[in-house]
TrEMBL record:
PROSITE patterns: ADH_SHORT. This is Retinol dehydrogenase 12. Transmembrane segments: none annotated. The keyword Acetylation does not apply. PANTHER family: PHOSPHATIDYLINOSITOL-GLYCAN BIOSYNTHESIS CLASS F PROTEIN-RELATED, WW DOMAIN-CONTAINING OXIDOREDUCTASE-LIKE PROTEIN. Keywords: Oxidoreductase. The lineage of its organism: Eukaryota, Metazoa, Ecdysozoa, Arthropoda, Hexapoda.
Length: 569
């Protein structure tokens, strides 16, 4: 009891005389309170201190205050001659867009970032509020990397101010420990992670019930932040918050497809193969002596240039715009007319998240049609050709691990009443997995053999689909913001070659030849969770998709495919 009493009510000061010459420090929420006092101290140690804040007027006043008033341990004369630099960046943690923009500006303008202090926060809102990104405000502003109340992380059903605040702070501690653990296991050195309790401080006193007599002054509250602890928090514990039932375990590992399978005489169709994952997949399959659909590019990692010139397939290009069902039908018609067989179909094309609601010419929300409905139609139109091509044909559907955050709104699948970019994207990726499972089931029940269906998560990758976005992972914006450092990128992201490996694995690996309807990640079968396992959902989505395409689902699947071809071609 005495130990915890001291922790809360005694005011130990940081005695370190360490200078920070040439160092750059980023502090969030530094326009007032603990953030401003921390900035004042580090500025006095000759650091370049960046105040990342929401209120620019208040932040400019804070800068003037910091410049004119030294910390308690320094005289004014010393302060004038031995200080660093101050800079201001706009950051509103209530908006993921603002977080991304701030990170982008920091990465562009700062040569290095040595210290990041995630200080900003809100304490307790008396009423339930959501951010523009759809998250409970306290959770998003204070912390948004993982779940604690796993079934109701935003506390929609059970909101209480103290519960929301306490949950966000527990998440900060668990995130700190888990990130330290993962950096250590990845052999990423030179980045230490800390979490702390600053003490009871009379900031936001209008929002709390804490008496000011029990609180610490702001200049004392900053001391734990300024001090550098000797215990770096390298805990070997794998926390439930990050790795619940291994849902996200494949996000940070880069397993490569080792299969040497050739594709001589095989024809592969890849959508969205002009760049990114599609192009890298095409590069690999082209080197396996196949017919493929993408422009020829440079050498694959397994081959010398001489081998590449002499042992490759053919390339062809077909026009396909998934925003138009007419374009999908025309592409399918051209493929069926010009290609003798189709052995592998890779539904890779996709869009990430449109900031505003957009409809296609067919009346569907753009993300839903490009990522899912267009591929649903293309697959149905090409299935008869694949059925007659040969045994062991494969259909690969590129999904994403973000499906775990999704639901299918059957009453408003185009999200006219409730559009949120992330929700739209996650829904489309869940739809892809459900489609994969339902198609595999229908093929099996119709005794149609020799066509296997796969869905997959490629990993976290910087590609054209996410050129200006870290929305793929809650916390990626934070990680990229640490520094423009190859080690950080290596820990959290795959390059496109690595990201294409699971697609290639599902396309060629011998072990997958007898598997169908499964979900893959990191070149292996992965477990699906939540709505992705709901058979009723899959069947209901199939029927709704047919209605959106003006098709009538048939009990006999072979008859249904003939009807689709007759109506659509």
């Amino acid at each position: 009891i005495n130990k915890y009493y001291k922790m809360w009510f005694f005011s130990k000061m940081c005695e370190s005389k360490t200078r920070l010459d040439g160092k750059t420090v980023v502090i969030t929420g530094a326009s007032g309170g603990i953030g401003k006092e921390t900035a004042r101290d580090l500025y006095a140690r000759d650091a370049r201190v960046i105040l990342a804040c929401r209120n620019m007027e208040k932040t400019n006043k804070a800068v003037e205050d910091i410049k004119n008033n030294p910390p308690s341990w320094m005289t004014k004369d010393e302060y004038k001659n031995n200080v660093g630099e101050l800079a201001i960046y706009s950051l509103d943690l209530r908006s993921f867009k603002s977080v991304r923009d701030c990170a982008k500006n920091l990465l562009t303008n700062e040569a290095a970032i040595h210290i990041l202090i995630n200080n900003a926060g809100v304490i307790m809102s008396p009423s339930y509020e959501r951010t523009e990104d759809g998250n409970e405000t306290t959770l998003q502003v204070n912390y948004l990397v993982a779940d604690i109340e796993f079934d109701d992380i935003n506390l929609e059903r059970s909101y209480a101010p103290i519960r929301s605040y306490a949950q966000s702070k527990l998440a900060n501690i668990l995130f700190t420990k888990e990130l330290a653990h993962r950096l250590k296991e990845a052999n990423v050195h030179g980045i230490n992670i800390y979490c702390l309790h600053p003490g009871m401080i009379p900031r936001h006193s209008n929002l709390t019930s804490f008496p000011e007599t029990a609180a610490l002054p702001l200049h004392i509250g900053r001391q734990t932040i300024v001090n550098t602890p000797k215990n770096y928090g390298m805990y070997p514990v794998v926390f439930h918050i990050w790795n619940q039932k291994k849902i996200l375990s494949h996000l940070f590992f880069n397993k490569m497809c080792t299969s040497k399978a050739r594709l001589d005489g095989k024809t592969v169709v890849i959508t969205g193969a002009s760049s990114g994952l599609g192009k890298e997949t095409a590069r690999d399959l082209y080197a396996r002596e196949n017919d493929d659909m993408v422009r020829k590019s440079t050498v694959t990692f397994r081959m010398t240039k001489d081998e590449y010139k002499n042992n490759v397939g053919e390339l062809a290009i077909y026009f396909l715009d998934l925003r138009s069902f007419k374009s999908v039908r025309d592409c399918a018609k051209n493929l069926l007319t010009n290609e003798a067989a189709i052995h592998i179909l890779i539904n890779n094309a996709g869009v990430l998240m449109s900031p505003s609601y957009e409809r296609t010419e067919d009346g569907n929300e753009t993300t839903l049609q490009v990522n899912y409905l267009g591929h649903f139609l293309l697959t149905l139109l090409l299935l008869p050709k694949m059925q007659s091509s040969s045994a062991n044909c494969r259909i690969i559907n590129v999904s994403s691990a973000v499906y775990i955050f999704a639901d299918i709104d059957f009453d408003d699948i185009n999200l006219e009443r409730s559009y949120v970019p992330f929700r739209s994207y996650a829904q489309s990726k869940l739809a892809i997995i459900l489609f994969t499972k339902e198609l595999a089931r229908r093929l099996k029940e119709a005794n149609i053999h020799g066509i296997n269906i796969y869905s997959l998560h490629p990993g976290l990758i910087f590609t054209g689909i996410a050129r200006n976005s870290n929305r793929m992972f809650r916390g990626a914006a934070f990680c990229v913001c640490i520094c423009d450092n190859i080690c950080v990128k290596k820990l959290f992201f795959k390059n496109v070659e690595q990201g294409a490996q699971t697609t290639i694995y599902c396309s060629v690996d011998e072990k997958t030849a007898n598997e169908t309807g499964l979900y893959y990640s990191n070149c292996g079968v992965s477990t699906t969770y939540r709505k992705a396992n709901n058979r009723h959902y899959a069947e209901k989505l199939w029927n709704l998709s047919c209605r959106l395409l003006h098709l009538e689902p048939e009990e006999n699947f072979s008859t249904f495919l003939k009807t689709v071809s007759r109506q659509m071609l």
